[in-house]
Amino acid sequence: MRISQQMLFNTYMSNMNRSLNNLVETNIQAQTQKKVNRPSDDPVGMARILDHRETLATVKQYRDNIDTAKGWLSLSDATMTQVSTILTRAKELAEQGASGTLTDDNREQISYEARQLFQQLVSLANTEYEGKSIYAGHKVDDNAFTEKLWMTTNDSNVSSRNFTITGNADKTIVVQFLDSGDIGGGAPLDYRYSKDGGKTFITKTLAAGNTSLDFDGVTMDFDLGTPPTNIPVTQNDSNNTNDTSGTWMWVRPTAVYKGDDEDSIDVIGMNTNLGGGRTNAEGSFSKDVVVRIDTATDLASQIEYSYSLDGGTTWTKGNVKPADGVASNAVLTIPGGTLTIYSNTGGGGSNALGAGAQFVVHPDTAAMNVQIQENEYVRINDVGKDIFGGVYQLPGANGASVVFGGDSMLMSSNSSATHNMFETIGNLVAFLETNNQTGVQHCLDSLNLSQKHILTKAADVGGRENRLAVADNVLSSLELNEKDRISHIEDVDVGELMTKLSQQQIVYEAVLKSSSMIMKMKLLDYI
Length: 527
Fold this sequence. Notes:
Layout: H1 5-32, H2 43-97, H3 104-125, E1 128-129, E2 132-133, E3 145-153, H4 156-159, E4 163-166, E5 173-177, E6 189-194, E7 202-206, E8 212-214, E9 219-222, E10 248-257, E11 265-270, E12 279-283, E13 289-293, E14 297-298, E15 303-308, E16 316-321, E17 330-334, E18 337-341, E19 352-353, E20 358-363, E21 369-373, E22 376-379, H5 384-388, E23 391-392, E24 401-402, H6 421-433, H7 437-490, H8 494-520
Antiparallel strand pairs: 1-2, 3-10, 4-9, 5-6, 5-10, 6-7, 8-9, 11-20, 12-18, 13-15, 13-20, 14-19, 15-16, 17-18, 21-22, 23-24
């Protein structure tokens, strides 16, 4: 076969370009230190690299979430520690104030610090992390608590009734009734109050039919028919606030919780045709549950139903409540608890359930959870009233009530201690400011319970912090493992690469030299 100059040239160029391309590819790997720089270098390896990078991105997001959660919980932990320290100081003040050796001036002097401690506790309960309240549930843009006036009395007939107080006072107002009777009744009632700790009193008359007491800037409204008891006539001129005769009231500070709660579960019925039929859900629900009646029936018959945990996008079907033969309450089992549909027989309504009728079980949710691993979440906030107490008005309720119940509004020998911190400190302030030694003594047990409750809640926060630390260590190990696997596929062996680079450089130089020598040779050189 005749070898033409054109064929020689094409062959030389092909060999030269191939050698140069190999040298350039190796040079790129030397620059990037990676043997896979584009999908064509290793299609399967690139797919594995992308999978590992996606895992790394997910791990990074989880670790960012953990950092955020650590910030919230660490601040909460520190806050509760400070609260416990303040309660220790409050107990010291209470022990001093409960001593019979102190004068009224001594208790007044102690009261100034006690009120400052109360205000500091309110400030701590409103602690924010990056501008978000950590104790207000989902209502993170507002303070969890605000200061409010509340009432303590020695009369259980008064403490059991509803009341409202409006206005502000820098010092506890102590109130006595000079007449017995029903507030808002047909006869006027005389009462007196003091705004200087019981040193001087002002006497006023509550007109017949009126339910509002006026304390010069502070107004107190009672339920109609609240029955206060008068003090004996012989004690009308006594300013002894330790006397237990008749109805006494101390209008003193507390804190009202303004965040949201996890106390109730609402049920919303749609297209139920039950008339005035009532429903109720019980259990522990982390999200809304939608319940759908699949076949027309009634409460006494078999009920076929489905439920959805994603707002109706997907349904779990085939659930059955067997027939019981009587028009009784129907209890449907759903994730987290039960839904009860109460019988309407005798109420003029219907017990029929049409196909397609739905019930939405909507729990009050105050928790803010962050994802720290697949299918694993940690709560970062808390409901302030469940930690610090105070008073709270449920959504839709007519008035506020004391958190945890108990006897924080009743000061008597048979009243029990409470772990409601704000109520306890509010009472301590009231009794110190009004020189009530017996009242201060009542506060001591409640202070111990309140501090123990705070420390228990702090332990819960600490447990979540420890869980975050464990999760962070697991994710750190996973991150290192993923990076190692990516490096095994993607990174180049530097020693091997340098050897390869030197070899290809020699090859390329040899191709250039040999090609130039051969291209110089022609037939005329031999004629």
